[in-house]
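#structure-requests
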Amino acid sequence: MIFLQVLVSLTQGAAALLLVPMLQAAGVGHSAGAGGLLGMARSVFAALGIPLTLVWLLVGYVTLVAVAAVLNAYQTVELTRYRLIFVDALRSRLYSALAEADWRHLLRQRRSDIQSMLTVNVTLVSQGTAATLNLSAGLLVIAVQVIVALRISVPVTAVVTATGLVLTVLVWPLVRRSRRLGQTLVASNRRLLGSVTAFLDGLKLAKSHRLQASHVTTFAADLGRSRGAQLDFVKASELAGAIQLIVGAFVLAVLVWLSMDSLHIPLAELVVLAYIFNRILQLITSAQSNVQFIAQAIPAMNELLSFVAGCEAAVEPPAPLPGSPLHRRTIGRGIRLKDVRFAYPGPDSEHHDVLHGVSFDIAPLRTTALVGPSGAGKTTLADLVVGLMAPIAGTITVDGRPLTGASRTRWRESVAVAPQDPFLFHDTIRANLLWACPSASEQQLWSALRSAAADGFVEQLPKGLDTVVGDRGGRVSGGERQRIALARALLRDPELLVLDEATSSLDTEHELAIRNALALLHGRLTVLVIAHRLSTVCHADLIVVLDHGRVAETGSWAELAENDAGRLKSLIEAGSVS
């Protein structure tokens, strides 16, 4: 890129130099005879075997301008390509860092902050990258133009160069302010995106309660802060540009007057000097603008790199690639939890325990149910069993082997989860199912739908499997969304199926259909259920009752439900399990 920029600058400089003999040949100003720029042009043309006439001077000038234009266009395309490659590499690194980071680390991040990194910060970095590349090209052009001007008049060029340096010093405080404004802009845009995310997530509830006006008010305030930050940056940039243009124009006018009155520079050379200095002034203004864009982008770049570094520092151990012999783990003799303790970091950097010394076994090809009041640690415990997170104390083993390091990430290939609030892509039912198992056949898709009691309503849809479910599955009912998600989980043919309140949105008829389907899998699939419904819990082989992060009791339904002093009995009476 530097080589291209040098070629463009030199070609443009040669075209500018050729203006002097071209004007002199046209009778503008006197001829410098054998010396000066006209003499230099005569020597070059003689070496090329071309007569030094006005026509050939014009042909030479047009040729140089054309070559410079083609090179400049090619350079612009290449600059854009390199900028896009760099920004895409940065965005890919961010995506990869997010995808590979430990789940516990990701839980500390706000979703809107992550979205801000992927959109606002990357956009600002892209603008800063373009400004950096344009600045380097502009500085090279300025350097060549100054060299050309020196060939015409050293004193005048020295004054103009000094003026450029003075102008740079004058506007430097505005450049420093641009960096501070960049920090403000990043923060205000993050707040704005957070407001948009909260608005969309809570829109249905807000409309239901007729509270949408407060959402709009908050959004308008965030818009105002973002708009103010952007306007402040534009004001600083335009003020700097205005100062440079006014001072530059004044100096240029003084130099033209001095050149004719005192220095007696020939008219042709004076015209070219004025042209060159006007161009240099524009390039300096453009360079100042690019420097301000860079200053604005630096805070976004620093924040982005810091975020990526944090994710990369929390990266999970690598697991074998899909399809390798070591890729999938079997549940073997089952899962054992022994003295498991887990804590989430609080805002004060202190740890707040969620699980305290939890111990129990998940037998293979059996159904284990986790019950307990809200906040008892059921979902956290399921996340640990799945391998999303590692306990801070105690051990979890699968088939007698610790669930740690690469073993933990590898285990997740053998697990399927049907969450309480299932996520579906804005795509067809077929695409949502194939996401879990891209190689699944049509027969396997329908088999999974039957197991999840979802085949009936899918068959009745006009486009069947090719029906688009909408954003987050919004075009189907909650029960239908859960059944599609359950079918997607079963399609993985998992060693362990985790149902996190997966039947909570189903009516009695469809819940019964799913329970009947799961009953057929009993003895062939290991299931971990988080549920409040008696109809789900009572059929489990083992019920683990959690209370304040501890195992209160374990046993079968017959053992626990009849124990008047037991915790399950009190939960049933309190309506926590119904």
